[in-house]
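Me: I keep going back and forth on a fold encoding question. No explanation is needed for now; the record alone will do.

Assistant:
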Amino acid sequence: MEIQTTYKDIWKISFPIILAGIGEAIIIVTDTVFLGRVGIVELGAIALADAIYFMFMVLSLSLSEGIQIIIARRTGEKNYEEIGNVFNQSLYMLCILGFVLFIILKFLSPYFIDIIVNSENIKTAVNDFLQIMAFGILFGSFNLAYDALYIGMSRTRILITATVILAIINIILDYCLIFGNFGFPVMEIKGAALASVIAEISAFLFLTFYTLKNLNIKKYGLFVFKKWNNPLFKKILNISNPLIFQNLIETARWFLFFVIIEQIGENALARANIIYSSYIFFLVPIDGFAETANTMVSNIIGQGKSGKIG
């Protein structure tokens, strides 16, 4: 898609991203509302558990943003085969990274949590959540690769459908697994984690099926897995390095905030989670336009029209 520097094009790309962001925010709010009915400990623990999980996802998120920028550049150049090459190599990277993050989150995070968390009840609840959520980190990373592909190609409307599927499955399974409705076992915070993992897998399967059916696989060279491309890996890493630092700072501030509040008490942490769940809705439009700026600038450079960036 050849992007023009108009408000219409900005909105056309941004609007689906914003709606997808609202869907993801609804998932966080749903976990907060449902677990608030379980108890204060669970309501507070989910905030800290999510913050830790997002800290682990920083590398995958940052790499996907770097991949998105490169795909947008190749889209502007109309170098379609290279789009597939970048995406295919990104799956290698995110698969390796996802497996490493799974090992760390699954087996080493309990020692880390034991050091930073004061309340024994919160420790247990956070560990219960992360031990299950670790299984979703690989699929979450793959979904970020699909996000990079479709945002980079400026074909963002499909992200709305993917997020709706993610949100609906998460909400239904939250209701079933947290409270034990419709014959399901009562799992409380473990149920929230399992619901999130199944929702991530469902979104991954949908995006894979959609890509195979609706994109021209041969034209873009998608899912053609050649040997590891070290120069491309270095290029992605060079672009992603500043993003890693930026995303780490943004994520760490919330993580440290919840760690500090947890030292005050379980009630304070639960209240902080309610405030955070409300606050994230205000960030969604900002993030949506920021993602669009990344893609549009790179696409326009690829078109050889750098003078229109301003």
The two ends are 20 Å apart (CA to CA). The mean pLDDT is 92. DSSP finds ten helices and no strands in the chain. Residues 27 and 167 are 6 Å apart (CA to CA).
